[in-house]
Write a structure and sequence with these properties.
The complex is a heterodimer of chains A (about 280) and B (about 375).
Chain A lengths: L1 H27 L6 H17 L7 H21 L6 H23 L13 E4 L2 E4 H23 L1 H11 L1 H6 L4 H23 L9 H16 L3 H21 L2 H18 L8
Antiparallel strand pairs in A: 1-2
Helix pairs in contact in A: 1-5, 1-8, 1-9, 1-10, 2-3, 2-4, 2-8, 2-9, 3-8, 5-6, 6-8, 9-10, 9-11, 10-11
Chain B lengths: L2 H7 L2 E2 L14 E7 L9 H17 L8 E7 L4 H14 L4 E4 L3 H14 L3 E3 L12 E3 L4 H14 L5 E7 L2 H16 L3 E8 L7 H10 L3 E5 L4 H12 L6 E3 L4 H7 L7 E4 L8 H14 L10 H18 L4 H7 L5 E3 L2 E3 L9 E8 L5 E10 L10
Parallel strand pairs in B: 2-3, 2-4, 4-5, 5-6, 7-8, 7-9, 9-10
Antiparallel strand pairs in B: 1-3, 11-14, 12-13, 14-15
Classes of the chains: A mainly alpha (about 280), B alpha/beta (about 375).
Chain lengths: ~280, ~375
């Protein structure tokens, strides 16, 4: 039972961390290696919120707004000319990530920052004391996944985004302002990543390099998931399960590389990953 | 990639007043390679401050053999690759006279060949897993033989603990500390019911904590890398509701304070806590507060040995009558310094007997000393060194 809870909550955390990266990869077909930096920016929004004396929960909307605003600027200045050069976009976003990391270091120093907990304590569940926050992470993941699906399936922007995914030239010919769709997608993706950064603060230390540890895992998951949120959810559950099982029964050291190894194996066998799911 | 390192190396803090130069000799340069970035970044600034204070005080009293002291601080990024660059630049580029620093074990191990080749005395001021032996290396901080027994003895005798669970970061210090802890626990009649590690950059302790909870031990002892992994593990353990007697072999007072409520109740064992009630410690704390004011980083078990090591080097140079490496190395084990931690003399196979304090973190973040263990011997660290 404990292992099942560990699997589900680990998958939820992986999903939260990867959602912003997937939103950008799914629509724009570029890999945003500045993703780790957006996570860090979000976490520092929690630091700033704490310093301003705001309620810890206020950091969530703050981080989304800051992330989306910075995402808008970054798309406009850096990403826009690079849509047709996806390899250059990887370099540019990697560089952007380094720049953001250094700016955070300049502003806040290299120290570990401490943020107030969003939710503390444990709850009794199936005869176990389980971390309340990890259970909340499952809810957060469902909410994020649900609202992304609703946005994509139920709104005008989502319809346009899907048109851009399917055939961009045709979408443009039909009068869809594809540049604006791209801008909005990038902003939302960056906002989601920053939001994930706040949601990570109760689990990790906040320091300028914190995002890097999560970037590789998120990248692997998104590669396997292709462009779909449903596929991402499946990938998170499968990989989360493997990570927890390997950590529990073999060794936590092997567990921490299991996502990367498994992603390589899956992509070797099926180059489209879980995208058909 | 080496940008940040070069920047910090360029940060040569020349404290020598030009007018004070005696006999035309330049300053004696102390290289301080330290982890300004990476895992050690939380404590490194306090170490640099301690070195600055020692150098200031010595220079104000006329320096060493009529020469001023100067510091050259380099960032080693808390790791092996960064340390190689930092030591290369300090030993061969800057040609420092001595290296005095707190570093990760990975950084120290990577740097030792450079130190041997450059024949520079190296005073290592960080507690570590022990048994690092080199002609040029002296250590004035604790090893497991000094730190672990106070905790295990207290847990077994006072808390009635019989079973222990050990958690660490997967690197030399984490493994070394816990392997000593394990043998000491078993020697003392206790039992280790679990021992788990995560890589240094690992941040997901989920399954480790689940194993801890399923094992139902009486006490838990952790030995992670300082900084991020320590904070991450403590946060996740507290979130999972772990409320066992909890000793953290890698936490210092400052980190405990900044961790807030999550740190309350943690036991730590150290050769220095700010609450040591001696004139030397009070004078040291007052001097730190006066020099750094609001920017002062709380002195701790990593920064105070740095402060004392600068004085030990001074004493050795004065005894040797020069900064010649061979002569200084000969003098180092014979000199002593009365510092904030008491009298320090590195005469036990390049290591030092130290007085150890068992403390518990209080609700307000301060550390209360529960008991004191006088002049604990480091044991046989380097029997093959003369």
């Amino acid at each position: 039972m404990l292992i099942l809870l560990d699997v589900v909550t680990t998958a939820a955390i992986l999903f939260i961390v990867s959602a912003g990266l997937l939103a950008i990869f799914g629509v724009l077909k570029i890999i945003n290696f500045a993703h780790g930096a957006w996570l860090t920016v979000g976490a520092y929004c929690a630091v700033v919120a704490a310093r301003l004396g705001l309620n810890p929960w206020a950091a969530l909307p703050l981080a989304f707004a800051v992330g989306a605003a910075l995402g808008t600027v970054a798309e406009w200045l850096i990403i826009r000319p690079l849509y047709r050069r996806p390899l250059d976009a990887i370099l540019a976003t990697w560089g952007l990530g380094i720049v953001i990391g250094q700016l955070i270091t300049l502003a806040f120093g290299r120290d570990v920052q401490i943020t107030p907990n969003l939710l503390g304590g444990t709850v009794a569940l199936f005869g176990l004391d389980y971390s309340l926050y990890r259970l909340f992470a499952v809810l957060a993941a469902v909410l994020i996944g649900g609202s992304c699906a609703a946005l994509l399936e139920g709104t005008r922007l989502g319809l346009k985004a899907r048109a851009v995914i399917m055939n961009e030239a045709l979408a443009r010919a039909l009068g869809i302002d594809t540049a604006r769709v791209r801008l909005a997608t990038f902003a939302i993706g960056a906002g989601l990543s920053a939001l994930a950064g706040v949601l990570l603060t109760p689990l990790t230390s906040v320091d300028p390099n914190m995002g890097v540890a999560w970037l590789i895992g998120a990248f692997m998951l998104v590669m396997v998931a292709g462009g779909s949120f449903a596929a991402l959810a499946v990938a998170c559950l499968v990989f989360g399960a493997v990570q927890v099982l390997v950590s529990t029964f073999v060794s936590p050291i092997l567990g921490s590389i299991s996502v990367a190894v498994l992603a390589a194996v899956v992509l070797r066998i099926s180059p489209r990953g879980f995208a058909r799911a | 990639m080496s940008k940040s390192m070069l920047l910090s190396s360029a940060l040569l803090i020349a404290l020598a007043a030009p007018s004070a130069h005696a006999a035309g000799a330049g300053p004696i340069t102390i290289g301080v390679p330290v982890g300004l970035s990476g895992a050690n970044s939380v404590v490194a600034p306090s170490v640099v401050q301690a070195a600055e204070l020692a150098v200031d005080e010595i220079n104000a009293h006329g320096g060493v053999l009529g020469r001023m002291l100067a510091l050259d601080v380099a960032d080693d990024a808390s790791g092996a690759a960064g340390a190689q660059k930092a030591f290369d630049s300090l030993v061969y580029g800057k040609k420092v006279d001595v290296l005095i620093s707190m570093e990760t074990s990975a950084a120290r191990n990577a740097a030792l060949p450079i130190v041997s080749k450059g024949k520079v005395p190296y005073i290592y001021t960080s507690f570590y897993e022990g048994h690092s032996c080199n002609r040029n290396l002296f250590v004035d901080a604790w090893v497991p033989e000094q730190q672990v027994p106070p905790i295990v003895d207290d847990f077994i005798k006072d808390k009635g603990a019989k079973t222990f669970f050990l958690i660490g970061s997967d690197y030399a210090f984490g493994r070394g500390m816990l392997s000593f802890a394990k043998s000491y626990i078993e020697k003392s009649g206790g039992k280790v019911v679990g021992e788990e590690y995560l890589p240094m950059d690992g941040s997901d302790w989920t399954s480790v904590i689940s194993k801890l909870k399923t094992a139902h031990p009486d006490a838990v002892i952790t030995s992670t890398a300082g900084g991020a992994p320590n904070v991450t593990l403590t946060k996740q353990m507290r979130a999972a509701g772990v409320a066992l007697p909890y000793a953290n072999l890698a936490v210092d007072e400052g980190t405990a304070k900044s961790m807030g409520a999550d740190a309350t109740g943690i036991f730590l064992s150290a050769s220095y806590v700010t609450g040591i009630d001696t004139a030397a410690n009070k004078a040291f704390l007052a001097a730190m507060a006066k020099k750094f004011g609001a920017d002062e980083k709380t002195p701790n078990d990593l920064s105070v040995p740095e402060y004392e090591a600068v004085y030990l080097y001074k004493a050795a140079v004065e005894k040797a009558g020069s900064t010649d490496s061979a002569k200084v190395l000969e003098a180092l084990p014979t000199v002593s310094f009365d510092g904030p931690r008491g009298t320090i003399r590195m005469d036990k196979q390049h290591h030092a007997p130290l007085t150890m304090y068992l403390g518990q973190v209080q609700g307000d973040g301060s550390v209360k000393v529960a008991s004191t263990f006088k002049d604990v011997d480091p044991g046989a660290q380097c029997p093959n060194l003369k």
